[in-house]
Design brief:
By secondary structure, the protein is α+β, with helices and mostly antiparallel strands. The chain has three domains: 4-128, Orthogonal Bundle (Butyryl-Coa Dehydrogenase, subunit A, domain 1), CATH 1.10.540.10; 130-243, Beta Barrel (Butyryl-CoA Dehydrogenase, subunit A, domain 2); 246-390, Up-down Bundle (Butyryl-CoA Dehydrogenase, subunit A, domain 3), CATH 1.20.140.10. It is 47% helix and 14% strand. It has 13 helices and ten strands. It has a four-stranded mixed sheet. It has a four-stranded antiparallel sheet with strand order 2-3-7-6, with no helix packed on it. It has a two-stranded antiparallel ribbon with strand order 9-10. Strand 9 and strand 10 (286-287) form a beta hairpin. 48% of the residues are buried. Bound molecules: flavin-adenine dinucleotide. Flavin-adenine dinucleotide binds next to strand 1 and helix 13.
Length: 397
Amino acid sequence: MATFTEDRSDAQNVSVADIEHIRNAVQALCASFPGDYWREKDRTKTYPTEFVDALTKAGYLAVLIPEEFGGSGLGIRAASAILEEIHKSGGNSAACHAQMYIMGTILRHGSPSQKEKWLPMIASGELRLQAFGVTEPTSGTDTLSLRTTAVRDGDDYVINGQKVWTSRAEHSDLMLLLARTTPKDNVEKRTDGLSTILIDMREALGNGLTIKPIRAMINHSSTEVFFDNLRVPAENLIGEEGKGFRYILDGMNAERVLIASECIGDAHWFIEKATNYVKERQVFGRPIGQNQGVQFPIARSYASTEAAALMVAEAARKYELGESIGKEANLAKMLAADASWEAAEACLQAHGGFGFAEEYDVERKWRETRLYQIAPISTNMILAYIAEHVLDLPRSY
Ligand SMILES: Cc1cc2nc3c(=O)[nH]c(=O)nc-3n(C[C@H](O)[C@H](O)[C@H](O)COP(=O)(O)OP(=O)(O)OC[C@H]3O[C@@H](n4cnc5c(N)ncnc54)[C@H](O)[C@@H]3O)c2cc1C
C-alpha cells in the first residue's frame, strides 16, 4: 500500500508567505463572483460553471495533485486556504471542492498506469472526478451495510444498486464508487468486502447508469444514482478488491480538514457581515451593535471560530508531516462546523427581519453552512469517534 507521505512531501516547503499569496489571489478571483452571482445560482438551482472554470484555469483545484501528474503539489494547507477564502468571500466551493480530494484514492492506492491515465487529465480539469458514491438510502451512516454490488464477470464488474445524495453527478465525468464485491457473510473482517471502482460516467449514462436530481434546501447539485447491470472494466478497480472501505477512510481525514476550512471561511463571512450591519443599523436612536445582547453572540462566535481555526491548522500541519490525524481531523470538522453555525445564527439574529431577505445573502449562507452538521459526517458520528477512539469508551453502535 502506498504511504501517506508520498503525496505530501513537497507541501512542507510551502511557506507562510506562499499561503498568504494564494489567499490574496483567491480573494481577487472571488471578487468577480459577488453575492448576486451566487444568489442567482441559488434561486435558479444552477451550477456555477463560470466560477468552477475560473478556479480550474487558475489551477486551484489541482493543488493536491503532485507536479509529476500535472498538479502543483502544494498540499493541504494551500488547499484549505483556497477553500476558506472562497467561503469567506460569500461564495461556495461545494460545486467543485471534491475535484481536489476524491482523486486522493487514485493517488494513494491506484496502480502506476491508473495514475498516468487519470491524474494528468484531472489536474488539467479536462476530466471531472467530483462524484463520490458512498451513501445509500437504506444504509445511511452505516456504510458497511451498503447494498450496491459489483460482481466480477469476465473482464468487467457488473454493478447493481442505488446511491443517494451523490453530489455533482451531473457535472462529473468520473465517479468513485464504493460497492460490495464480497457478500457480508463471506468476509473475515467486517470492514472487508467493499471495493472502490472508478466509473466513467460518459460511457455509463444510458447504459445501466441513471442520474436523478434531488431538489434540496441548498444549491448542491444533489442526485440519486441508479445502477442497473452497469458493466465497468475490471481494470477500473482502484487498489485491491475488498479493501475499499479502508481506502475511503484514508481519504476522509483530508476531506474533513478541507470542509472544516470552508466552515472557518463561512464563520468569518457571517462575523464580518454581522459586525458591519450592527454598526450601521440604528434602532432606538443608536446602533444596535451598542447593545451587549447583540454584541455578545457575535463576539462568542468569533472566539469559537478562532479556536476552531487553530485546530484546523494543527490537523493540516500534522497531515503534511505524514502523521495520523484521525483525532485532529474529527475535532477540526466538528468545532469548525459548530463555529460556523454559531456565527450563522448570530448573524441572522442580528439582521432581524432583513436576515430573511434574499438580497442580504445571510439566509443563503445560513442554509449552506447548516449542511456541515450533517455532511460529510454528522456531528453525532464525530462525537462517537471521539468517545470510542480518543477516550476509549465502549463503541456505542
Ligand atoms: C447536500 C448533501 C450532499 C451530500 N453529498 C454526498 C456525496 O457526494 N456522496 C455521498 O456518498 N454522500 C453524500 N451525502 C450524504 C451524507 O454524507 C449523509 O447524509 C450523512 O452521512 C448522514 O447520513 P444519512 O443522511 O443517511 O443519515 P442517517 O444515517 O439516517 O442518520 C440520521 C441522523 O441520525 C444520527 N445517527 C445515526 N446513527 C447514529 C448513532 N449510532 N449514534 C448517534 N446518532 C446517530 C445521525 O447523526 C443523523 O443526525 C450528502 C448529503 C447531503 C445532505
